[in-house]
Amino acid sequence: MKPPSSPIAPILPGLPSGVEEGSVFRSLFVSYPDSLLLVDQAGRIVLANPAAASLLGYAVDELVGLNVDALVPDSIRPRHASYREAYGRAPRPRPMGTQMELVAKRKDGSEVMVEIALSPLQSQGLPFVVAAIRDIGAYPRVKQALQRARYSDHLAQLGRLAVDTRDLQVVLDHVPAMAAQALEVEVAMVLLLENSRLEFRVASGVGLVPGEEIGVRIPSHANTPPGFVFAEGRPVVVADYSNERRFSVPQTYLDAGLVSALAVPFYDRGRFIGVLTVRSREAKRFGDEELRFLESLSNLLATSLQRVQTEEALSHAQRLESVGQLTGGIAHDFNNLLTIIQGNLQVLEELPAIAEDGYAQQLVGAAARASRRGAELTGKLLAFSRRQMLQPNAVDTHAMLHSLADMLRRTLDQRIGIAIDAAPGCPSVLADPGQLESALLNIAINARDAMPEGGTLHFRAEACGALPPEVHNELSDRDAHGSFVAISVADSGTGMTEEVKERAFEPFFTTKEAGRGTGLGLSTVYGFVKQSKGAVAIATRPGAGTTVTLYLPQLYDPAPVATEEQDEEQAIPTGLRVMLVEDDAEVRRVVHTFLVTLGCSVVTAANAEQALLGMETDADSFDVLLSDIALGPGMRGTRLAAEVQQRFPKLAILLMSGFSSELLDADRDVPQSWELLRKPYTRGELARALAKVLAAARP
């Protein structure tokens, strides 16, 4: 057969006259949308079309003469050379879509995923191969898959950051940067809703416009961009700000050339807490893929916020527990010291020489009052950690409020009026009378400080069958379904902001200037009410005063309450035989003096072992065991009492301690017939406790 007269045989027999086949093929090669390279057997590029130059980052002239190995990433170049050599020995057509993962290297060193079709021309008598190259990143499905992979990578980065850091601000700062980078937009920001629910605060952002700098507050009403998201409670897409009518578009957005936006809310356990928003200078920039990514980003951010808050709450609880343990240890030593001080002062006060000296009586009285204040301070420290030893009893709220009001009228600023609204038939509550009075006094003092120019302090007590919803969840189901008495203290003072209200019960939190408040007032109220199986609520508004309401359980079928005078009349039998066990020698000496002046016959022991040995020799010589719980090394007072009761069942038991936690544990674990006495105590309190255990021990 005669060979063709041209390199490529004519295949276009219907060409118009004057149109050369060569020009048609050259035009096809130049205008073809895929990248085309004509490569010789040595791998050298002979021809390249503009599409190839654009894809690979070269000029057409730079590609001609270049070896195709230069277009292959360094890591796979040796393998590619071997493949090209084998292909040259047996060239064959290879269409696109062969599922091969191919990568081309651009002039600048960057890489692009491609598909390549090979068309050998040897069958046409030419020693070339045509390589058609297509950027698969331009495929809609591939482009979408790559976009999703990029989004997933950013989400994974944020997830790792959220796990690794304990600083919430670091996460807040990264979220807008990641959103802007992943979505290729100009503006991204995080806005957090303030506790007042009236404003948003710009927490972090990139590309922020004037008026939205970090820290700026933005109203949360529905006419602002974030406020509209708050009102809707769902994602909001803005296709074009110039056509937006649902809310007011700030002029700064338009001045910055911003056109479209996407904003998604995020929540903390169902409560709206903020907005994540992105903005672009392109119209209709955001679709379903962008929405899903931003929602995932906001969910991760919300999870980080929850984790940080949970860790802070746990840390706060651990600090309280640590403080409680510390104060418990301090209280034991401090209360022993106070027992010694108060006991010796009481004995000193009754000495004939002192009793007849008015000046000496004043000095003793001042020292006694100071020691009582010391005991009250210890009680306050114990109260907020709920380690105080409560002595619940029937409290007549009507009588208590009137008594407290009388005292406050004498001590508060005369410009503060006091009103009481407590019906005589208001049920009694079951609470520690002293602690309840102290709680109400703390609230009243806070109210006084909130009314520097005077005002009205209003006490109110009324029965309520059920707790209001805002405090119902604070109690167990069993406790929450009882009946309560609501005791409220309202003032006409400055009120609190939402932020202050949220922290009002935190220990050591105070808004008062240095030296005017410890921050223990309301925290002790909270601890006392919770320990009393009640609840407490605050209603307040800046400039509109504050109302603090205590919800305490009603007392059903109250037993008659013995007065202190009646208790005093319960005389201890003369010659009452007492085994006193106390490891502190000074405390032991004071208590021994108390017992002797009460007419008791006393044997002392420094530890449980000595006490058991002394009682074994003459079991019938004792009527009462009076023992401290903490007795140093060896057997504790509770164990000693159990041993004594097993061996001598008729013996009355009275335990004492300066550790409130010990008394609480004993209150749960020991028999009801055992009495618990809190240090420091007076001789009268000791006498009443002894009378009580003797009455309980009688058959």
UniProtKB/TrEMBL annotation:
EC class: transferase
SMART domains: GAF, HATPase_c, HisKA, PAS, REC
Modified residues (4-aspartylphosphate): D628
Domain Response regulatory: 577-694
Any single Pfam family the record assigns to this protein: PAS_9
Record SUPFAM superfamilies: ATPase domain of HSP90 chaperone/DNA topoisomerase II/histidine kinase (SSF55874), CheY-like (SSF52172), GAF domain-like (SSF55781), Homodimeric domain of signal transducing histidine kinase (SSF47384), PYP-like sensor domain (PAS domain) (SSF55785)
Enzyme Commission numbers on file: 2.7.13.3
Protein known as: histidine kinase
Domain PAS: 21-90
Stored Gene3D superfamilies: 1.10.287.130, 3.30.450.40, 3.40.50.2300, Histidine kinase-like ATPase, C-terminal domain, PAS domain
NCBIfam families, sorted: sensory_box
CDD domains: HisKA, PAS
Record carries keyword Transferase: yes
Record's keyword terms, sorted: Kinase, Phosphoprotein, Transferase
Record's keyword annotation contains Cytoplasm: no
Domain Histidine kinase positions: 329-556
Catalytic reaction equation(s): ATP + protein L-histidine = ADP + protein N-phospho-L-histidine
Source superkingdom: Bacteria
